[in-house]
Design a protein that fits this description.
There is one protein chain. The longest helix has 24 residues, at about 75-100. The protein is elongated and about 60 Å long. It contains five helices and three strands; from the N terminus they run ααβααββα. The protein is mostly helical and about 100 residues long.
């Protein structure tokens, strides 16, 4: 794993989408929307950006009943998210180590 910032993932909504999806095989659109507390339009816009970068797969399997939209991080998306998260951890740890300690 390489610690590397990814400007595309760094956007707050896209970072939270990747964080949510990194813990599951796939997630349903409505579940992710409710987790982020955003509108359908806002989520759709962010998903299209991630999909265009090859970080996300969007599928709408057909069958009986209501069609649901499923979201899944690709291997490239999962790797990019892990690298970005590692870069953030290193930044936070470096900041904590360089901060002067306070004594009571």
């Amino acid at each position: 794993m390489t610690a590397r910032f990814d400007e595309l993932i760094h956007s707050p909504h896209r970072l939270r989408i990747c964080a949510f999806l990194s813990g599951v095989d796939s997630g349903e659109f409505a579940t992710v929307r409710d987790f982020l507390e955003v509108s359908d339009a806002t989520l759709s816009k962010q998903l299209k950006i991630l999909a265009a970068a090859g970080y996300l797969e969007i599928s709408k399997p057909t069958g009986r009943g209501r069609v649901r939209t499923w979201l899944r991080l690709t291997d490239a998306g999962r790797s990019a998210y892990q690298d970005h998260a590692q870069a953030l951890r290193l930044l936070v740890n470096a900041d904590l180590q360089s901060s002067p300690s306070t004594s009571a």
